[in-house]
Amino acid sequence: MNRLHWTQTIDRRILYLVLLALVVIGLLVPIPLPLVVGPQARALYNAVQQAPEDKLALVCTNWSASTQGENRPQTEVILRHLMHRHIRFALMAFDQQSTNLARELAEELAPQYGYVYGRDWINWGYRADVNGTLKGIVLSIPDTFKTDSQNRIPLTDLAKLPVMQGVHNTKDLSIIVEISPSGVYKAWIQFVVGSTPAKFGYGPTSVMAPELYNYIDAGQMVGMMFGIKGAAEYERLLIQDGTLKKPGFTTRAIAPVSLSLVLLFVLIGLGNYGMYATRNGRKQEKGS
Amino acid sequence: MKLSTLLSKLFPPLHGWPLIGALVGVLVLCVFLFFALHALPPRARKMVIAGATFLAGLFFALEWFWPAGADGTNPLTFAVPTVGNVANVLTAFTLGLGVMSLIRIHGNNVARQKAGWENSVVLLAGMVVMAVSGLFFEKTIFFRSLFRDVLNSFDAAMFATLAFYIISAAYRAFRIKSVEATLMMIAALVVMLGMIPIGQALTSFIPERGSFLSLLRVDNISNWMLTILNAAAQRAINFGLGVGALAIALRVWLSLERGAYFESSAE
Amino acid sequence: MDHASNSWPTAFIVILWSLIIIGAVRMAQAGRRFYIRRIAGLNAIDEAVGRATEMGRPILMVPGIGDIGVIVMQALSIFSYIAKTAAQFGNRILLPTGGGTGPAIYTVADEVMRESYAAAGRPEAYDPDSVMFISDRQFAFAAGVSGMIYREKVAASFLFGEFYAEALIFAEAGQMVGAIQVAGTTQTTQIPFLIASCDYTIIGDEYYAASAYISREPTLLGSLAGQDIAKAIIWLLVFVGAIGVTYYSATGGQAAMKAFFLNQWLTPH
Questions:
Q1: For chain C, which chains pass the contact test of at least 3 CB pairs under 8 Å?
Q2: Is the pLDDT at B265 greater than 50, yes or no?
Q3: Which residues in chain A are closer than 8 Å to B151, comparing Cβ atoms?
């Protein structure tokens, strides 16, 4: 059945065009889709919801512009949740771009919640070496970072940085959330998780999610929101508890993701159907 | 006397001219060590390198194995942030090395007008513009435009190409040619359906939990596959990788690699 | 701060495994021969180099974008073998480096390639420009390497090391120019993409076995044997633990499960 051979050899440019069209349609046309909140995102939400209010939360970002499609919404929902609960937070980064990108996001959200830099939030900045930095903050955060990233004020100057009140090392943290497209979580689990009562949550890109279930199962990671779907699930929970009034771009972005995967199903089905139909046709020709 | 106290006495914090003098002295010492190392015969050089490698790795091994007191520290714990800062500085130095390497290679391309030398000019010009604007014009709209509108956009665009590549790779490669491929395809299909709202909508009429029928919800099946089947396989792979990493770390630390990797055993 | 005194079972296991691995290495160095099974992807290396020689097109080797460490050193040892073979046949090689410690990897890779050509008896054939540093940024590196693949139309592509999202970009670019591709990585998240796009993929532990398989050096073979013994101990612990926990949870409930000594010793407190 040679007339079905085309199903196996569709020009990749046509595939790319169809995908592009579906993504654009999904972004422009609002498609209301039901969203089920997964147990991992719910666990992370509950951990942030129950985090002590009188301690400092640590949000570590390791993402750059390349993965901001997934990681920026994740960082946004976490920061909104923390700010809604009036928990002070610190930003730190292991990526050079990330320190600026996360800072810009925090500066954009802070006025909405009355957060003031130095009083309610702080940016510790970028560090190149992950292992050394994490080992350092387990012992002493001021000794590891020395000053904040933006104004170079010593972290021990509590008059100018009241946000650092009572913060010496990781034992004094409320919760730790890392948003990252890479495997930095291993260093956190190795060096930090056992040394602090603060729970550790993770926001990876979708592709990394399968390797993290072990750590959730072992209790070393309290929960995670993977990719933009995880961020959308978290956003749904924030809407339910009143932190957010209505869904944002994060929830709308699920539509193109869904349509792309539907396209994937169709193409895989088409390719396999064509393969079997062609094979059967050859068998029949040989038999006749 | 505690080790930290002794080291604080031997190496007190310096400021101003004594600090500059110390830095110059260390630089001179490093240059001297560099030439001394080069002057050594190969066998002696290997011994020096093996010794330095062993000492460098010994710190963290010793710090972990040394029993900690009630406060969770031992006599070596005080040095961990300092060693961490040293590692940070070394890592940052490699960036300078990268810049030098780029200038050398692309400068060479331009000087000799090799094929594609125009691209090297663009690279070098871009590097200089970005560095100068970042160092001296960081707060200006010029740098912010370069960072946000150029660099960030290009970065995001490259990552976005993955979506297209995944489509073409999956379409080309996912053929059911064997029992294993069939099982993989079914698992992939179920997990993907469980991840997307369109797939979850297929079984949304079934209660999410509290009923035996809940087991048939595609998102529950997907979650079970990820948390039980996938987690078990990941754990098995991680065990192997962990043991492998320990083995290689031991080989490098104890210089058992001599005669293994890049040199002949006869040396 | 975590120390051995917080978790003596962990310290005991680390010491036990270290002794086993070092012991196996010493036995191998003393002459004991260890068996290593066939790994299809590594057998394909010679085939790939041969194909590149026939086509007169270069060989690409990418050590990933991980920081300089054991994984990159493993990759460079495999590339050293490939480079020796390529040098013998007069094939051109391309070795782009990138990532946070890309410059450091570049200097090591340059030295490794130089020594490989010298070991193959062709030191004058080594082109220093064949090893290059592209960028420390992930996708700048991806753009540079994929551009190189398209321009040079590489005949064989070897992707060994730590790869993240850029793995699929390299693999698809190689597919488009018709290169034979062999990949090996410890990043489990990238394995599905590499399997879909590459001709041969080396998974998980096989990566660490690769250098032993290729070189048959006693140190590496002994290390591999030691690792297998350590994994057998893990298997035993998992088996005993699973049986024990299943039995006690079926008969004694939570309290009895907690009283089971393995749970007390092996779980963190």
A1: A, B
A2: no
A3: 65, 97
A259 and A194 part of one domain: no
Query: Of B49, B65, B81, which residue constitutes the final position of a domain?
Result: B65
Q: Is residue B258 part of a domain?
A: no
Q: Report chain A residues whose CB lies below 8 A from the CB of B164.
A: 15-16, 19
Please judge whether B192 and A129 are an interchain contact, meaning their C-beta atoms are less than 8 angstroms apart.
no
C145, with CB counted inside 10 A (0-12, 13-18, 19+), is buried
Per-residue tokens: B27? 């630089």
- Considering its fold, how many domains does chain B have in total? 2
Rg, Å, chain C Cα set: 22
Which ipTM did the prediction report? 0.82
Same domain, yes or no: A79 and A184:
yes
Q: Which CATH number fits domain C40-216: 3.40.10, 3.30.40, 3.40.50, 3.30.67?
A: 3.40.50
| Cβ-Cβ contacts under 8 Å, A208 against chain C | 189
| Neighbouring C-beta atoms of residue B213, cutoff 10 Å | 12
Backbone angles phi, psi at B239, to 5 degrees: -60, -50
Interface test with B, best of C133, C150, C198 (most B CBs within 10 A): C133
* pLDDT value at A1 more than 70: no
Nearest by Cα to A91 from A67, A66, A110, A68? A110
* B156 assigned to some structural domain: no
Flag whether pLDDT at B81 surpasses 80.
no
Domain holding B199, by residue range, is: 174-253
B238 close to A (CB below 8 A): yes
Q: Beta strand A121-126 with A89-93: parallel, antiparallel or unpaired?
A: parallel
Count other Cβ atoms within 10 Å, centred on residue B97. 16
Query: Which of A13, A66, A127, A214 is best to mutate for the C interface (most C CBs within 10 A)?
Result: A66
E strand map for A171-258 = 173-180, 199-204, 223-224
Please tell me the distance from the alpha carbon of residue A195 to that of residue A28, in angstroms, as a whole number.
47
Tokens linked to B263: 């040199």
- Return the number of other C-beta atoms located less than 10 Å from residue C243's C-beta: 10
Tens of pLDDT, residue by residue over A88-135, are: 999 999 988 899 999 999 999 999 999 999 999 999 999 988 888 998
This prediction has a pTM of: 0.83
Question: Residue A58 — φ and ψ, nearest 5°?
Answer: -115, 120
Domain count within chain A: 2
Interface contact C227-B261, CB threshold 8 A? no
CB-based contact A57:A200 (threshold 8 Å): no
